[in-house]
Write a structure and sequence with these properties.
Two copies of one chain form a homodimer.
Chain A lengths: L6 H14 L5 E5 L1 H9 L9 E5 L10 H7 L4 H10 L5 E4 L3 H12 L9 E7 L4 E5 L9 H19 L5 E5 L10 H12 L3 E6 L1 H6 L4 E3 L2 H26 L3 H20 L8 E4 L4 E4 L6 H16 L2 H23 L1
Parallel strand pairs in A: 1-2, 3-10, 5-8, 6-7, 6-8
Antiparallel strand pairs in A: 4-5, 4-9, 9-10
């Protein structure tokens, strides 16, 4: 039900997803009548692999997470996450209110032992492929220990999804030297160095899209600003390019000649292809789609959830965090 | 002497700048022999408006600011800033070590009364024109009072340079709602609301390039990450575009057809045109050029210094900060 558009996006995306994945099954959670009506508009639907699950409420995009938690116990979001908890679904995907989704997921699913708070992680395109960045907005203030947890979670997400052994982890800072940054970042660097991780060291903002490391760790404030700044810049560059090619009949002619190349470029930088952020650190898979995306974008969020469900990312995170806790205990015992 | 390349960039840029500005005079500070040798390589130079000032030392790009301050009292950087202090120069421009430049400028010139620490401010291109963003890396941790000072300084820089009365000021945050963000940002919002500023409210990362406000205020950590992330993303997009147009003989042909448009676009997003960051809050004008820029970029940094020198930006900042201090005193007196 969620997102800026709702069923007109989520339903067509779901139908297409089922066509692409003959093994997958989907449960659409929301207003049954509205869902049936939307489904009826589409031709062939693999109804044997598509189940509807009624939920009588919807969390508004601007609703306070606290109020949503209290008053909307039968919201599509809550019911979907309940299905994950009960083992009926292997993952939940939502384009709804991020704060409410995070609060509900945390309340219903709980965090993995050793994880203080979940983080929002996303794969971003880089010059070398993709990198995972977290946290992108769930945690405004982070402790060094949390940043370490983000490093472990990001590392496990990358290795679970890409099969890459021992991904490199970088700590986002404002200079590559050890002395740079605030106290939290400096202490986090010490913890990351000490942990059983492939810690690269500090990275700077320009390293993100350069693909210097596989995992970029930062607090949710910085990460959210970096992500949204990127969205804004990409949008501005695209609109400048469009303006230049539509300036006159002559430039329009140029655009026509360059169309196949421009389309290929456009596809390559298409943000929809990177849609789908993981709420990492929970005892279940929850993926957040951008609220403003279309059916293609929402399909990529479903893909992300599907890939995670096919991996053992949660078990791996739990294992690595337990090892880390053990490691800290041993170090403390040795120090005493 | 500074920057990744040194005189091969700064000298040609200076010569061109003098040609563009028949009223301007330049003092080149550095190794006199090296400067003379570089100048001799260039044809006509307006030597009546170009003076050399010898400085026997150079601060290295990776040198610690503390050591540079202590051991390099005759560095080109220090001597240039001394000239500003003594009133011999109206502004200093450097492509050198940012930390050393900031520390030296602060030590020699001192801050304007009421300004705790200087900030690095830069004009960025937006969909609507340009916006000023600060701090971009001078202050890792900022108090709410400092963020207010940044707002005043940015506002005065924009109105001094563009003539725009009462520029809008936005506070960079991770959500436009008042409740979002950390404690520092929340308190800063209260101070900014209370001040004699055209405070717009919170803005998000995507608002920067959208040009939502004239001035974007943030701490130096967030600002530096946002700026460098932008640099990295712009670089990646440009290289993707290049790759697409050089994929085959056919795409190269397309590029040829689209060349005039692509060149116009390239010029429009050329980072060199926005080179030159102001060290604001000092009792003198100091402009930092990107260390890796070329002669065109360095010319833009000289332009920035020239424009500031032609305005009364420092006097205006001093005036507004004094008013603000008075305002706070009155509010406190009224409260007692």
């Amino acid at each position: 039900m969620g997102g800026d558009v709702g069923l007109k996006v989520t339903v067509p995306a779901s139908i297409q997803f089922l066509q692409d994945h003959p093994d997958a099954r989907l449960i659409l959670v929301g207003d049954q009548t509205a869902l049936e009506a939307e489904l009826a508009l589409h031709g062939s639907v693999a109804r044997d692999r598509l189940r509807l699950h009624h939920a009588s409420q919807v969390v508004g995009m601007d609703e306070s997470p606290q109020l949503a938690m209290k008053n909307k116990k039968d919201s599509s979001m809550r019911v979907a996450i309940n299905l994950v908890k009960e083992g009926e679904a292997q993952a939940a995907v939502s384009a709804g209110n991020t704060g409410a989704l995070m609060a509900t997921a945390r309340f219903v699913l709980k965090t993995i032992p050793g994880i203080d708070r979940p983080a929002i992680a996303k794969l971003l395109p880089t010059s070398k492929g993709t990198s995972c960045m977290l946290d992108l907005g769930a945690n405004v203030d982070c402790t060094p220990a949390q940043l370490l947890q983000f490093g472990i979670m990001g590392s496990e997400l990358v290795s679970s999804l890409s099969g890459k052994a021992n991904p490199t982890v970088g700590l986002l800072n404002i200079g590559s030297e050890d002395i740079k940054g605030n106290e939290t970042v400096k202490q986090a660097a010490e913890l990351l160095k000490d942990a059983a991780l492939n810690f690269y060291g500090n990275v700077e903002g320009n390293d993100i899209y350069r693909g210097t490391v596989d995992v970029v760790v930062c607090d949710g404030f910085t990460g959210n600003v970096a992500l949204k700044t990127s969205e804004g810049l990409a949008h501005m560059i695209a609109s400048f390019l469009r303006e230049e090619f539509t300036r006159s009949w002559w430039t329009r002619l140029c655009a026509l000649a360059a169309m196949p190349v421009l389309n290929h470029f456009k596809k390559r930088v298409d943000a929809r292809r990177y849609n789908g952020a993981s709420l990492l650190g929970l005892r279940g898979i929850v993926v957040k789609s951008h609220g403003g995306t279309d059916a293609l974008g929402f399909r990529y969020a479903l893909e992300q959830a599907c890939e995670e469900a096919g991996s053992s990312v949660i078990a791996h995170i739990a294992e690595r965090v337990a090892e880390q806790l053990q490691h800290i205990k041993q170090s403390e015992a040795a120090a005493n």
